[in-house]
């Protein structure tokens, strides 16, 4: 399982899809798929860390996911508690830092507290960053950036012709990631081939990788296949 990879992506973003279908295939409730999906996150994080990947951004809850049945939303909101109570010590031991993008102030208070505690307790770690996109939407991210920039223009702090790519990027949730804010590789599991409002600005030149494997089944070997595919791509960024 250890083929030589010529290029390791620094930032991998993952749309973890297929939990519901995984459960349905086993005649289990949808939430059983989410529970199993959390175990995949643990495996994949350890693997990414061992490969020297610097940043993993996981699409955990989109701004559109509020439209799911209330019971399912409630279950999803409890997952960070399950995940961090069993896995945060190991993350810290392995020098992994937890972060979030999206508007977490709209989450139930206990979920916010759990996330903020994980972020604070791992803040000193300098290895892999495990970044959860929660209550995240790419369009909403751009809207809040446009609003903040417009406010600065109104106050006279920014001239309109100073607005360029770099300035916009300073106002995105991913600003703190600087040179690695844009994912090199975006993986989506379960056979769907779309971005679903995930990192729309940042993925402009990302390599996209789709696999039919459902997220609860996504293994280290499947991840390695994605890395091999990435390593064989020829990234030109619009040039020849
Ligand atoms: C997509 O499967 C998955 C989700 C909407 C949620 C995944 C989220 C987690 C595993 C939560 C992790 C969060 C933390 C902080 C640990 P789906 O339900 O859309 O599957 P389907 O398309 O087969 O129905």
From TrEMBL:
<feature type="binding site">
    <location>
        <position position="22"/>
    </location>
    <ligand>
        <name>substrate</name>
    </ligand>
</feature>
<feature type="active site" description="Proton acceptor">
    <location>
        <position position="65"/>
    </location>
</feature>
<dbReference type="GO" id="GO:0030145">
    <property type="term" value="F:manganese ion binding"/>
</dbReference>
<feature type="binding site">
    <location>
        <position position="188"/>
    </location>
    <ligand>
        <name>substrate</name>
    </ligand>
</feature>
<dbReference type="InterPro" id="IPR001441">
    <property type="entry name" value="UPP_synth-like"/>
</dbReference>
<comment type="subunit">
    <text>Homodimer.</text>
</comment>
<feature type="binding site">
    <location>
        <position position="66"/>
    </location>
    <ligand>
        <name>substrate</name>
    </ligand>
</feature>
<keyword id="KW-0479">Metal-binding</keyword>
<dbReference type="Pfam" id="PF01255">
    <property type="entry name" value="Prenyltransf"/>
</dbReference>
<feature type="binding site">
    <location>
        <position position="207"/>
    </location>
    <ligand>
        <name>Mg(2+)</name>
    </ligand>
</feature>
<keyword id="KW-0808">Transferase</keyword>
<feature type="binding site">
    <location>
        <begin position="62"/>
        <end position="64"/>
    </location>
    <ligand>
        <name>substrate</name>
    </ligand>
</feature>
<feature type="binding site">
    <location>
        <position position="68"/>
    </location>
    <ligand>
        <name>substrate</name>
    </ligand>
</feature>
<dbReference type="GO" id="GO:0008834">
    <property type="term" value="F:ditrans,polycis-undecaprenyl-diphosphate synthase [(2E,6E)-farnesyl-diphosphate specific] activity"/>
</dbReference>
<dbReference type="InterPro" id="IPR036424">
    <property type="entry name" value="UPP_synth-like_sf"/>
</dbReference>
<feature type="binding site">
    <location>
        <position position="17"/>
    </location>
    <ligand>
        <name>Mg(2+)</name>
    </ligand>
</feature>
<dbReference type="GO" id="GO:0016094">
    <property type="term" value="P:polyprenol biosynthetic process"/>
</dbReference>
<feature type="binding site">
    <location>
        <begin position="194"/>
        <end position="196"/>
    </location>
    <ligand>
        <name>substrate</name>
    </ligand>
</feature>
<dbReference type="GO" id="GO:0000287">
    <property type="term" value="F:magnesium ion binding"/>
</dbReference>
<feature type="binding site">
    <location>
        <position position="34"/>
    </location>
    <ligand>
        <name>substrate</name>
    </ligand>
</feature>
<dbReference type="InterPro" id="IPR018520">
    <property type="entry name" value="UPP_synth-like_CS"/>
</dbReference>
<protein>
    <recommendedName>
        <fullName>Isoprenyl transferase</fullName>
        <ecNumber>2.5.1.-</ecNumber>
    </recommendedName>
</protein>
<feature type="active site">
    <location>
        <position position="17"/>
    </location>
</feature>
<comment type="similarity">
    <text>Belongs to the UPP synthase family.</text>
</comment>
<feature type="binding site">
    <location>
        <begin position="18"/>
        <end position="21"/>
    </location>
    <ligand>
        <name>substrate</name>
    </ligand>
</feature>
<dbReference type="GO" id="GO:0005829">
    <property type="term" value="C:cytosol"/>
</dbReference>
<keyword id="KW-0460">Magnesium</keyword>
<comment type="function">
    <text>Catalyzes the condensation of isopentenyl diphosphate (IPP) with allylic pyrophosphates generating different type of terpenoids.</text>
</comment>
<feature type="binding site">
    <location>
        <position position="30"/>
    </location>
    <ligand>
        <name>substrate</name>
    </ligand>
</feature>
